[in-house]
Amino acid sequence: MSINRFSHVFVHGATPRLSRDTRLYTQVVLACQRAPYDSALDIYYIPPEEMRAINQQSRGIDKATDVLTFTEQTVEATRMNQLLFADAAAASLERRAEAVDCGSLFICLEYLHTRCVAAPHQNLPFLEYLKVALVHAVLHATGYQHESKEELRAMSKREQFVLARIDALERRFPHVFQKIDGFEFLKKQNNVMRRRR
Fold first, then answer.
1. Cα–Cα distance for residue pair 162/101, rounded to 1 Å
2. Boundaries of domain holding 171
3. Which family is annotated (predicted)?
């Protein structure tokens, strides 16, 4: 699988390793989705205060959350996503060469970590939760929703498929797929906060 074709995936606000790992895992999800090679996606790692403000402004919910995905929701963009990201086995290279703006993802690592620490019996371990949340968000960016039971079933099935592919890549290429490490980022954030006090 050649994943270096997804050159328009950008990660903002992350440490170098977190940025590299996030890009790599995102590119795998896009490849599994048969996304056009020029698909554009911006991923932002943001603090809880910023996530809370975005969540309040966009959804009317006055609290932080783990991940938010914003895509272009025009009728034309929706049709294009349905056409380009269809599960048809024979996705033509011509269609894959077209550029598609998949939107923006916002990830709050502090929220994910706090949630894992507060209720470890109810949540995945932090690094696994980060991987699953990223896959879930990228699937939203490629058109998956879970407004109905059918949509939820389809998205869950696709999530399981993509995560199984990623797990296989992690086992086969452990030197490349070293898990998305959010701890380095959290340590850096804590050091910045201590200096501000």
1. 21
2. 9-185
3. Belongs to the endoribonuclease YbeY family.
What's the one-letter identity of residue 77? A
Number of domains in the chain: 1
* pLDDT class of 121 with cuts at 50, 70, 90: confident
Side-chain half-sphere exposure of 86, counting CA atoms within 13 A: 11
Neighbour tally for 173: CB within 10 Å: 10
- Residue 60 backbone zone (phi > 0: left; psi -120 to 50: alpha; other: beta): left
Residue type, 156: S
9-12 sheet: strands from edge to edge: 9-12, 40-45, 101-107, 67-70
What are the pLDDT digits (tens) for 58-74? Answer: 899 999 999 999 986 54
Closest of 13, 14, 9, 39 to residue 26, by C-alpha: 9
Domain membership of residue 55 (yes or no) is yes
User: Rounded to an integer, what distance in angstroms lies between the CA atom of residue 68 and that of residue 135?
Assistant: 12
In a domain, 194, yes or no: no
* pTM recorded for the entire structure: 0.82
Q: What pLDDT shows up at residue 122?
A: 86
Helix (H, G, I), strand (E, B) or coil at 101: strand
* CATH code for the domain of 45: 3.40.390.30
- Whether residue 48 is contained in a domain is answered as yes
Whether 193 is in a domain gets the answer no
Distance CA 82, CA 80 (A): 5
Q: Which of 80-94, 103-117, 144-158 has the lowest mean pLDDT?
A: 80-94
pLDDT value of position 100: 81
